[in-house]
Design a protein that fits this description.
Layout: E1 4-9, H1 13-25, E2 29-35, H2 39-45, E3 50-52, H3 55-61, E4 66-69, H4 76-85, E5 89-93, H5 100-113, E6 117-120, H6 127-137, E7 144-150, H7 172-175, H8 177-188, E8 193-199, E9 210-216, E10 221-226, E11 235-241, E12 244-249, H9 254-259, E13 271-280, E14 283-290, H10 295-307, H11 315-334, E15 338-339
Parallel strand pairs: 1-2, 1-4, 2-3, 4-5, 5-6, 7-10
Antiparallel strand pairs: 7-11, 8-9, 8-15, 9-10, 11-12, 12-13, 13-14
Helix pairs in contact: 4-5, 5-11, 8-11
């Protein structure tokens, strides 16, 4: 079986940290093209790969079978649309799109063209999330009542970059929120209702930099939270059930490891170094994290493209994340709790 020929759109942090390391390390893929205005960097880093100055030229002229789009959020829809029209499979960096109708159009277009459309929600392979998932499956907390997921940072000053420019699709709700909302939907499915505070709290911030969402389910609440003013130990998960609570601080280490050049593609899962704490009437117990692995996403993607196995993340699943984000924006604007069906 010949490897899947891959073209990567963009050469920023997303491409360098989350995509190219796995494309280069896994034999199921072959990097054939990159588009970026950073010509000199590409010549130095990838002298044997075709370089394109812009994304549309890569789509139109390269022989890539899979196009990975790491461009700014506003470009996701037009670039994915063009690649699908060319008959190429598409992997979109999260968030999927910035409007529900765009996502619906791409899903229909991909079905008609008989190509795969996948969204890179890699955080489903975070070690702490996998640990939380296992705790729930094993009913370690009893009946769940409150589930908190945080993605906090200390970034009190606004940076000049597209993620914070105030245009549609910018801000932390689309950036960080898409990660943790996807995780919640993977665990619990669609909520019944959504209520939210979605705010720009930093001085002169044109984009959302704080959000606090409550997702209402039949028998429990989910709180999804992010602040740009969290300078101390960062809460990641807090689960409260009828038989105990679980608390985990700190973020998954894989991003920092990848930035340091550590790329683990082993198929075995060993306990990781991080721990959370389980509290019950019997006392407290350290729970070692399951070892995460973003490469599992790429292994599943290869199986889907080569053998028509299920995608690791379907576009339909990713579109529900956008529905929650846009309901949260509406909840803030209307100061109301909204039904998911709306």
């Amino acid at each position: 079986m010949q490897p899947i020929r891959v073209g990567v759109i963009g050469y920023g942090n997303s491409a360098k940290t989350f995509h190219l390391p796995f494309i280069n390390a896994l034999p199921m893929f072959e990097l054939v093209a990159i588009s970026s205005s950073q010509s000199e960097a590409l010549k130095a880093d990838y002298p044997n790969v075709a370089h394109y100055q812009d994304a549309m030229t890569l789509i139109e002229q390269s022989d890539a079978q899979l196009v990975i789009i790491t461009a700014p959020n506003q470009a996701h829809y037009p670039l994915a649309k063009a690649a699908i029209e060319k008959g190429q499979h598409v992997l979109l960096e999260k968030p999927f799109v910035i409007d529900i109708k765009q996502g619906e159009a791409l899903i229909n277009q991909a079905k008609q063209a008989n190509v795969k459309l996948c969204i890179y929600h890699n955080r489903r392979w975070d070690g702490d999330f996998l640990t939380v998932k296992k705790l729930l499956e094993e009913n370690k907390l009893g009946k769940l009542k409150v589930f908190q997921s945080h993605y906090d940072r200390f970034r009190p000053e606004v940076k000049v970059r597209w993620r914070e420019d105030g245009k549609p699709g910018s801000g932390t709700l689309y950036d960080l929120g898409s990660h943790i909302i996807d995780q919640v939907l993977a665990l619990f499915g669609r909520p019944q209702k959504v209520s939210a505070d979605v705010l720009a709290m930093r001085e002169h911030s044109p984009a959302v930099d704080y959000f606090h969402l409550t997702l209402h389910y039949a028998d429990h609440l989910v709180i999804v939270h992010s602040s740009s003013f969290s300078a101390g130990p960062v809460l990641r998960f807090r689960l409260e059930g009828e038989q105990g609570s679980y608390v985990k601080y700190g973020v998954d280490p894989q991003e920092n490891q990848l930035k340091a050049g550590i790329v683990d593609t082993s198929s075995t899962q060993q306990p990781g170094a991080e721990v959370g704490m389980l509290y019950t009437e019997q006392g407290e117990t350290q729970i070692a994290n399951i070892q995460g692995g973003y490469h599992h996403f790429y292994r599943q993607l290869a199986q889907a493209l080569l053998y028509n196995a299920p995608l690791p993340i379907s576009a339909e699943q990713a579109l529900d994340t956008i529905r929650v984000i846009q309901l949260a924006e509406q909840s803030q604007a209307q100061q109301q709790t909204l039904s998911f069906s709306e």
